[in-house]
């Protein structure tokens, strides 16, 4: 390689992942973070001993991490802990993988079991934002491509999320007004609250032609480790296939799928029903 090539900074073998291409200081910093994650507060000496490094080296790493919020020191007992930045980075990974990625096989199985389109959505303001969909094999189908928005009060997923929401959240939504879309839309506070009560009892929500005539949607909330509804999963299809006698069976399947997903991300095993019993 010529000297001019070297000046551009291109490595000889940029696919080489051997020891010579590792950044030693970064490697050590990650070792320190992993060590901090193992205990509930460790002194500088304990960390240095565990990693077989000099206290001076470990101290420089810890102070750098502290400046970035990735580590913090308890001045009282001189122990070091994982910082808030580390938590935020981990949370970003969980948001990306735990719900959307983990939901795909569950949604696929739900679509195969019911024969209808499976959907995944989250709350965005006063609407549901659809993130993912596994479509039915039928030509006539419900279609909510990623990015589609639907009002909370006129959506299966939306009502499933509202059933887990605090009272002031529901009050705020009602005060803004409940738009009407079909003769079946719930447009009064009394009707909406009665339906939310039913959802909490059975563990799943039903959009019975409330957004689009001729379409039904059955949904349940996905809960995180804190018991908070972070997303909803549903199946939807035309009323001539998703008939009223089928609602209970579909509801149980959707509820089971939501509870399985909740448990996979650290949430309660019995989903919405666990909140009621708690």
UniProtKB/TrEMBL annotation:
InterPro entries, sorted: GAF-like_dom_sf, HTH_MetabolicPath_Reg, TransRegBhcR, Tscrpt_reg_IclR_C, Tscrpt_reg_IclR_N, WH-like_DNA-bd_sf, WH_DNA-bd_sf
Ranges of residues in domain IclR-ED = 85-267
User: Would the keyword Thylakoid turn up in this protein's UniProt record?
Assistant: no
A Pfam family the protein falls into: HTH_IclR
Superkingdom of the source species: Bacteria
Keyword annotations for this protein, in alphabetical order, are: DNA-binding, Transcription, Transcription regulation
For the keyword Transcription regulation, the answer is yes
Residues in coiled coil: none
Domain HTH iclR-type, chain residue ranges per copy: 23-84
Region annotation (Disordered) ranges: 1-21
Protein name, as recorded: IclR family transcriptional regulator
């Amino acid at each position: 390689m010529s000297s001019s090539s070297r000046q551009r900074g291109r490595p000889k073998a940029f696919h080489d992942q051997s020891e010579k291409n590792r950044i030693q200081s970064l490697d050590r910093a990650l070792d320190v973070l992993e060590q901090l994650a193992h205990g509930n507060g460790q002194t500088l000496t304990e960390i240095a001993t565990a990693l077989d490094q000099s206290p001076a080296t470990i101290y420089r790493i810890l102070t750098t991490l502290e400046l970035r919020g990735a580590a913090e020191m308890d001045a009282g007992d001189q122990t070091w802990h994982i910082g808030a930045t580390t938590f935020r980075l981990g949370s970003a990974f969980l948001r990306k993988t735990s719900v959307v990625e983990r939901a795909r096989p569950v949604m696929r199985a739900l679509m195969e079991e019911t024969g209808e389109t499976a959907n995944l959505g989250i709350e965005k303001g006063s609407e549901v934002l659809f993130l993912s969909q596994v479509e039915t094999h039928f030509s006539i189908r419900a279609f909510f491509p990623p990015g589609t928005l639907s009002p909370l009060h006129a959506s299966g997923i939306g009502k499933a999320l509202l059933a887990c929401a605090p009272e002031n959240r529901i009050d705020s939504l009602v005060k803004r007004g409940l738009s009407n879309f079909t003769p079946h839309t719930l447009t009064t506070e009394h009707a909406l609250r009665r339906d939310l009560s039913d959802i909490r009892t059975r563990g799943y929500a039903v959009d019975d032609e409330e957004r689009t005539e001729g379409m039904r949607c059955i949904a349940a909330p996905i809960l995180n480790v804190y018991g908070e509804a972070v997303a909803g999963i549903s199946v939807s299809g035309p009323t001539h296939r998703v008939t009223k006698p089928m609602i209970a069976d579909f509801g149980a399947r959707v509820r089971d799928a939501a509870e399985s997903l909740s448990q996979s991300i650290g949430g309660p095993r019995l989903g919405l029903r666990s909140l009621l019993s708690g």
